[in-house]
Amino acid sequence: MRSTTRAEQADQRRAELLEATRKVVLERGLANTRIADIAKSINVSGGLIHYHFATKDELITAMLRATLDIESARLDELAAGPGTAVERLDRVLQYYIPESRSDQSWLLWIDAWNTALREPAVNGIMLELETAWLDALARVLADGTRTGEFACDDPAGAAERIDAMLDGLVIRYTLHPTVLSRSRLLDHARTAAAREAGIRPDAFA
């Protein structure tokens, strides 16, 4: 059996630190998370963390980057996956919408939006995340228009409008779940997407 190399061990340790950072950030928030909190959560020294990440900002940025990479890859799979354009569009919409108000991914990104106002590195990651979502929506809308399933003259513009509406609704759903249910949020998303795609809302059924 092949032994693990030092580089592989370092990569594994970095991955463990990133996962620990994500968990602590979700509990305490980006602004209130300290290196000491992360170290305590997995019973390691702060020095070990600084060996892999020079600063807290570098660690936070790496954690957000790793999360972005996972979500972007998943979006690519959904947008390019099997099925009709309607089915793929619906899968992208449902992936966008949190499973619950405690959805960890959305809680993380809402927190990161606030941090992005003051941290250029985080701002860049948030722009990449937004671009990934817009590209996925626009790609499916363009594909559906080429095949005749949709009638969408401006897939990029349609994607921006759908994305902006969903951002607002998801924040409302996260903060006030008794006011807006997930099923109603999904109905709004499908209605808006149907109008942009030039199809009937019941096509998603």
Q: What report would you give on this structure?
A:
- It is a single chain.
- With about 200 residues, this protein is mostly helical.
- Helix content is about 75%, strand content about 0%.
- It is built from nine helices and no strands.
- Helix 4 (about 55-80) packs parallel to helix 7.
- About 30% of the residues are buried.
- Keywords: DNA-binding, Repressor, Transcription, Transcription regulation.
- InterPro entries: BetI_C (IPR039538), Homeodomain-like_sf (IPR009057), HTH-type_TetR-like_transc_reg (IPR050109), HTH_TetR (IPR001647), Tet_transcr_reg_TetR-rel_C_sf (IPR036271).
- It comes from Nonomuraea indica.
- This is TetR/AcrR family transcriptional regulator.
- In terms of DSSP E residues, the strand content is under 5%
Strands, total number: 0
Compute the CA-based radius of gyration.
20 Å
Distance between termini? Answer: 51 Å
Q: Based on CA inertia axes, which overall geometry fits?
A: elongated
What is the SS-derived class? mainly alpha
Largest sheet: none
The tally of helices reads 9
Helix content: over 70%
Report the mean per-residue pLDDT as an integer: 92
Q: Give the uncertain stretches in residue-range form.
A: none
N-to-C SSE series? HHHHHHHHH
Pfam families: TetR_C_6, TetR_N
Domain HTH tetR-type: 11-71
Organism: Nonomuraea indica
InterPro entries: BetI_C, Homeodomain-like_sf, HTH-type_TetR-like_transc_reg, HTH_TetR, Tet_transcr_reg_TetR-rel_C_sf
